[in-house]
């Protein structure tokens, strides 16, 4: 949304990976992104305009418009390193039981102003969210891949959650939890990596923290209100942890 300049680098890195198709969901209020896609002129690019803003809406629209069984997702402020799609394929080959796989999101090398930071999601070692096993939700939408049919089977992303929605985060936590509840496996691996260039400054942190809190609360309460005892326990654990954790950020 309104980031055609950074999307240019994203698309160049993704197209270099030899994908079967690249679906771009554009929620911009100007024509720059559409113009960029037309200027590239690659038949593998599928441009879809969405007049309704929202990250979960974009995910669901992408899922509906994609034709491949294995889908890999990244954001318009990221660059994928050489071998990204090969890493995705190998991860699914190594884990044929997996419906979703999350990789690492690492900060790209760039000079930052004092107080600025780039959000990351690091995976120190491989771990899994397995049916009937312990449940922990994690991940970052800038680097995940999934079986298209599994996403459809669980109803896709909840569009009230996530950036641009009524509740501004936790769409992935909700999806993972529903995956777990319906017998799907989710794998977290350090082997699939993208580079993130989405700089945040220190003054944005309170707003970001509020969004995280609203999204988390909506996700847990959504399931707890349906008399889901596991979600209720996760909510109590989350509240207890937050109550004993000082609210600050070092930058």
Characteristic terms for this protein:
251 residues; single chain; 8 strands; two-stranded parallel sheet; 8 helices; 6-stranded mixed beta sheet; alpha/beta
What does this structure look like?
- Helix content is 38%, strand content 18%.
- The radius of gyration is 18 Å and the shape is globular.
- It has eight helices and eight strands; from the N terminus they run αβαβαββαβββααβαα.
- Strands 3, 4, 5, 6, 7 and 8 form a six-stranded mixed β-sheet that branches. It has a two-stranded parallel ribbon with strand order 1-2.
- The relative contact order is 0.15.
- Helix 7 runs antiparallel to helix 8.
- The chain has helices spanning 4-15, 32-40, 55-65, 84-94, 148-153, 171-181, 205-224, 229-243, and strands at 22-26, 45-49, 70-73, 78-79, 98-107, 127-129, 144-147, 185-196.
- The mean pLDDT is 92.
- By secondary structure, the protein is an alpha/beta fold.
- The longest helix has 20 residues, at 205-224.
In short:
By secondary structure, this protein is of the alpha/beta class. It has helices at residues 4-15, 32-40, 55-65, 84-94, 148-153, 171-181, 205-224, 229-243, and strands at residues 22-26, 45-49, 70-73, 78-79, 98-107, 127-129, 144-147, 185-196.
